[in-house]
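Quick one, probably user error.
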């Protein structure tokens, strides 16, 4: 099962389970099935509930908000995460506000799906990780599963069970990857969180205590897991913490994992500064600063636009050698 297949299966299951589920987006009709083919086959089965739209992200989100207010369960596909900013007004000033403005008498259960991230040479306007721009929005849940989660199960929960607005982020480079399974190289544990979006714990050892806690989300799992496997050969024991929920932050789980080692590396693909890693580090410092062995190390992409040329893009992005160097640094 790949990351993409899991998401596609979840959409088909959601449509089969509840006739209120609708999908709206650009180029989602078959046989195209969306820019990354996650929605393939859906419109052929449910032609009245899969709606292709003009190129207007603001209209997409505004339309979904109206559908949710009328009792439907809309799923919006934003073709590239970069285009979320075109719908930001509808997200920030409308969809996430209505439940509070009307004293809880209305609900806006809606899911905004979008692919994020670099690595395909798509250039400055189609490769960004912009989720940090939405982390401070009240009443917005931000979910970004790794390939160590079951992303389809999380999407199904977001569509059918979450009563509010969910920004659901899918990393482009995770789509073709098989989901991580427990084996000789890693063990996997799921930690249930209060909002229903679990945190995955990975260990590259089967006995003893961990040396370093690595915290990451979304597409960074594709880098962190191979680094863990490589460092296991050098007997560096890593406890990796992959929260699916970026907001709200699963502070209790992060704190417990960080306390086990006192050495923490936080990894994200978004640009450095004023980001998710800053908030996670601040939350850990508030309760653990006396028990940390070294300062928390944060790894992020350089504060730069993303070039289209592959070799230049790699110089901006987080790489495996960068993550490995950060792990070894906190162990010194």
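Nope, works fine. Designed sequence:
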């Amino acid at each position: 099962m790949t990351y993409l297949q899991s998401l596609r299966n979840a959409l088909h299951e959601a449509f089969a389970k509840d006739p209120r589920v609708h999908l709206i987006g650009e180029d989602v009709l078959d046989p195209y099935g969306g820019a990354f083919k996650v929605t393939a086959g859906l419109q052929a089965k449910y032609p009245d509930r899969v709606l292709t739209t003009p190129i207007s992200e603001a209209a997409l989100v505004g339309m979904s908000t109206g559908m949710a207010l009328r009792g439907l369960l809309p799923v919006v596909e934003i073709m590239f995460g970069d285009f979320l900013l075109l719908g930001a007004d509808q997200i920030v000033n409308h969809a996430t506000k209505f439940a509070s403005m009307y004293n809880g008498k209305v609900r806006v259960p809606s899911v905004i799906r979008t692919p994020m991230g670099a690595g395909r040479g798509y250039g400055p306007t189609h490769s960004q990780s912009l989720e940090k721009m939405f982390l401070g929005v009240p009443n917005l849940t931000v979910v970004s599963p790794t390939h160590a989660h079951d992303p389809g199960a999380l999407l199904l929960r977001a569509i059918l069970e979450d009563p509010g607005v969910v920004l659901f982020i899918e990393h482009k480079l995770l789509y073709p990857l098989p989901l991580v399974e427990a084996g000789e190289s890693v063990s996997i544990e799921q930690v249930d969180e209060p909002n229903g979006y679990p945190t995955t714990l990975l260990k590259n050892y089967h006995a003893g205590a961990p040396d370093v806690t690595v915290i990451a989300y979304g597409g960074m799992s594709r880098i962190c897991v191979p680094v863990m496997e490589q460092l296991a050969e050098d007997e560096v024991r890593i406890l990796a913490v992959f929260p699916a929920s970026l907001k709200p932050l699963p502070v209790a789980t992060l704190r417990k994992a960080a306390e086990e080692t006192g050495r923490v590396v936080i990894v994200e693909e978004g640009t450095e500064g004023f980001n998710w890693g800053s908030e996670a580090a601040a939350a850990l410092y508030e309760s653990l600063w006396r028990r940390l062995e070294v300062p928390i190390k944060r790894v992020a992409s350089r504060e730069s636009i993303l070039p289209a040329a592959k070799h230049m893009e790699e110089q901006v992005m987080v790489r495996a050698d960068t993550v490995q160097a950060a792990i070894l640094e906190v162990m010194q």
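The two ends are 39 Å apart (CA to CA).
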